[in-house]
Amino acid sequence: MNQSDVQKAFAEYDRQNRISNSKLGAVLAIFMMPAGSMLDYFVYHKTKPELLWEFFGLRVLCSFLVGVVLALFWTNFGKRYYRVLGMTWYMLPAFFIAAMICVAEDPVSPYYAGLNLVVLAIGLILPWTYKENILAVSLVISMYLGACLFQRSILNSSYVFNNVYFLVLTGVVVVASSFAASRRRRGNRASTPPCR
Q: What whole-number distance in Å separates Cα of residue 57 and Cα of residue 105?
């Protein structure tokens, strides 16, 4: 087996691994988003009860859209554009969480922790390169900042800084982890004797 064959075999393995892990992540997102309605109840049932059904609708819509992405992984389109779909399954929950932060107009919203979960899911489930993880973490943090900036209420800068600080730290851990994993994979390939 020559070097080109090895690279093709690894590319196919990587593609199958990404698709398989993205399916797992999508299934988790489909179930975890509606389950967050319990959080909505305990956070807002006294102060903003009108948000409960609105948030439930957003959560169900998000799960439906992630379900569509999941179904696409079994199609030729999904097998071809697995990288795009691999980003879509986690960007949908991140977008909807950021939307709930914005709609709630709650400057001290604890929902940024949901974005931390998204960042951790990216790092733990997807076998991505550190560059892909930097992009993913940057997009999630940008969504959070956008949600804060589009609120009509007065922002509490100390809470925003606190939340961004922890999102950034979580992102640093995820990126460092993927960088270390990438180096290990490269080291393993380099130390593998050529097939004869």
A: 18
